[in-house]
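Support request, please re-run this one:
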Amino acid sequence: MPELPEVETIVAGLRPKLTGLVIQDIRVFLPSLVRKDKTFRLQRIRGKRIEAVRRRGKMIVIECQDRLYLIFHLKMTGRLLWASHRTRSDKHTRLVVSFRGRTDELCFRDVRKFGFVRCLETSDPLECQELRDLGPEPLDLDLESFIGLFRRRRGRLKSLLLDQTFLAGIGNIYADEILFEARLHPLTPAVSLTRKQKEKLWAATGRVLRRAIAAGGSSIRDFRDADGGEGLFQREHRVYGRASLPCPRCGRKVRSLKVGGRTSSFCPRCQLKREN
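Re-run finished. Output below.
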């Protein structure tokens, strides 16, 4: 599933292309893609100018005139692509948005059909069900605010980083990479962290996410940016997907374990397990 760096990469690619364009038509080829709203409500977007494109967590928010919003979640295999009329469609294209005076179109492609879009009329899209319970954006937090998140938190670190109500946008890839950077074992109880460890975790979170954004995200299986290009950060993964390979820091074999049903990769020497 695309995580914060991948979605940020898509948004950065779409923002200069979409902002200021007027929507001419929106066509839905998979009605179940539209969450909680009848498909016909999407047609209210016709004739509206796009005013902003931004990210919240793992979701893409497109703001239009008259308090109308499109909210996309790519889920496992979704792609939001800027494509020419000649190359846009295949059997996995689920939605197409066309624009006044343009031949390029915005296409939502999703092989496994888990992604969704919502159309909202609201003064505050962050109050919709999909967005209102999300935790803060990791890159917006200063150190003291980050440390404050750990009050009354008793879960294991890997599970906590994956909890979207704790921090928005981090998934399996970046949780593993952040914990390696901070030299923390994925099963470390959050309540056991010292202030110094929290400081390291905050710094590691910023470093890893910023490097990943600069590299255009990680293309492991399905992710592509808005122009169909692959990200490059998978070349810099130090533990994710590298079980049985040498740790780039100490040379010991990277190991994996299951945390909350998710595979976690870590170095048993650099990330020693410590309990309370």
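Residues 195-214 form the longest helix (20 residues). Residues 138-266 form a domain with the Helicase, Ruva Protein; domain 3 fold (CATH 1.10.8.50).
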